[in-house]
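As a warm-up, study this chain.
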Amino acid sequence: MEVEITTLEQNDIWTIMDLLPGKKAIRSKWVYKLKLRANGTINRYKARLVAKGYTQVEGHDYHDTYAPIAKQVTLRCILALGVIKCWELHPLDVTNAILHGDLANKIYMNLSSKDSHAR
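Now compare it with the structure written out below.
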């Protein structure tokens, strides 16, 4: 959790502030995951702070969503090409992936059950 908070702060993702009158904050939650080694033993613990975006209403709270993703079939094709071409392949584990984009409106997220919020 400390790594996640530190990374978010280093990337200047938010500003801690009081929620403005008439604004609605999206709630947040922590999501935890175990990263396992090939033999099944625990390699490390991961934690992500995520917004509960499913509480928003399309057309009211937001209008467009888009996030570029790599589909499983694309990944398999690239790996197959690597094997066929005898490329040297290296695994990569991204510590923190942040989507960058310009937002037209300010988004408020509740960090805790207290009155502090982030934008």
